[in-house]
């Protein structure tokens, strides 16, 4: 008697954990794991080549891990002649080849793919790599006027017991954010994240990506990401050992000559499934109890993971597929060429983009207060801004990128995530970085030749959005400062900002 076929188990490029929900529910003896490098996923935006290379290299290594673990794996390479070019296409092809009694997948991190899989009759299991399920987040959000991260974070602290002393937070306070804002250090005592030499599998992928995606923004040179779990665990150890103690102090700092400072650079591994959120947090908590790292660093790090990361995911799934097209401030300007490496005299922007091109990485404050701040101040089309962030960073998947961009950075969701827009003049950048020292503009100049564009555009933004923001408690002081300026001064600022915006509209560099 011929036994009935098993099921197909889909594992996507950002689901590279042995304990993914679909794998846990599968039968290793009968089911077949399907993994596929496909054109649709590689081109839904023009990803940074390092992101594609990381994804394919990590997928190929993970397929080997699965085989060693006793799984049967049907793996499609991008250049396989029979490759249909899409995930549903590959599932259909494998169904023809092997037969199947059903297809099982863990829910993808993007509405686009969720809908495509539902259309292909794939059974989806909730992704349980996260601390808060959809139901738990929705229950927390239900009936609240404002969905502030801080309160959600406290619930996650209680739930996990991380940094808890019974019912109270260790140290007496929930949040040490106020101690995480030291300006850039004079000298850096940290060599940055672990760098891994590409092995034969990764080198083959690098050649493929170079050949297939020659025009994408970003360079493949000097590829150093870890591409498997042992490498990612080593990167975690190095972070805890070397960077965590000063992570808190310098979390918001930026330096012209240092791309990573004390940041973990672990989001790429975490989002792909090579690391789990709780193991990062527990490693950090151990470092606190061992006296290796102070509370402001450990609490700050844990808050980013069980607070911000879980919270933005909750918002993405709660708000639904139209979230990425929100545009509360009615912004529509094209992103300037500077975002793709075009000429700019703004040192901070030029450095953030240059490092993005080189590393497919920038840390949070570079994303929020340089590229994000400038895009918001000029009134850039949020959909384009969202497209840019999704393309250029190796850790970018829509569930985490979109709420950070559309919500936190561009205020395009009308204030679901941010209680006020993250805008600043040049003074903030000057305080937190050393960029201004080598800039053609002068951060201390508010108007006139050489005035820092952030200074002009900041007031222009506040002025043009006065109706919306002037009654916001957290913005009253800003409007009071603006209103105290003489009418002449205000006119000059608005005129010079207008000239700058006109230059951008004519495609000229600023
Ligand atoms: P660290 O500073 O070392 O922080 C530790 C960890 O905390 C990170 O690895 C990350 O997993 C988590 N974390 C920190 N802040 C956030 C946050 N705001 N949201 C979610 N997780 C957070 N993060 C992504 O993972 N993918 C993205 O596509 C992404 N897009 C962003 C777009 C914009 C406009 C902004 C402002 C932020 C974005 N972030 C994104 C959040 C944050 O910038 C990155 O998580 C962080 O820079 C990753 O670097 P790191 O691992 O060195 O982080
Ligand atoms: C990012 C990415 C890329 C570049 N390529 C693939 C791929 O070829 N096959 C695959 O399974 N996944 C890929 N991914 C990750 C997916 O885009 C990701 O799973 C969805 O965006 C959902 O988060
Ligand atoms: Fe950026 Fe203005 Fe400083 Fe130049 S002067 S680096 S544009 S903040």
Indicate the topology.
Blueprint: E1 8-10, H1 21-24, E2 32-36, H2 39-43, H3 49-68, E3 72-76, H4 87-98, E4 103-106, H5 111-119, E5 123-125, H6 134-141, H7 149-160, E6 164-165, E7 168-169, H8 200-212, H9 229-247, H10 267-272, H11 277-289, H12 295-319, H13 347-359, H14 364-378, H15 382-392, H16 398-409, H17 426-432, H18 453-464, H19 466-469, H20 476-484, H21 487-505
Parallel strand pairs: 1-2, 1-4, 2-3, 4-5
Antiparallel strand pairs: 6-7
The structure holds flavin-adenine dinucleotide, ligand DLZ and iron/sulfur cluster (SF4).
Please describe what this structure looks like.
By secondary structure, this protein is mainly α. It folds into three domains: 8-125, HUPs (Rossmann fold), CATH 3.40.50; 134-195 and 227-311, Serine Threonine Protein Phosphatase 5, Tetratricopeptide repeat (Alpha Horseshoe), CATH 1.25.40; 337-505, DNA Cyclobutane Dipyrimidine Photolyase, subunit A, domain 3. The protein contains 21 helices and seven strands. The strands form two sheets. A five-stranded parallel sheet has the order 3-2-1-4-5, with helices on both faces. A two-stranded antiparallel ribbon has the order 6-7. It is globular. The structure holds flavin-adenine dinucleotide (FAD), ligand DLZ and iron/sulfur cluster. Ligand DLZ binds next to helix 2 and helix 3.
Keywords:
510 residues, mainly alpha, Rossmann fold, Serine Threonine Protein Phosphatase 5, Tetratricopeptide repeat, DNA Cyclobutane Dipyrimidine Photolyase, subunit A, domain 3, five-stranded parallel β-sheet, 5% strand, binds flavin-adenine dinucleotide, binds ligand DLZ, binds iron/sulfur cluster
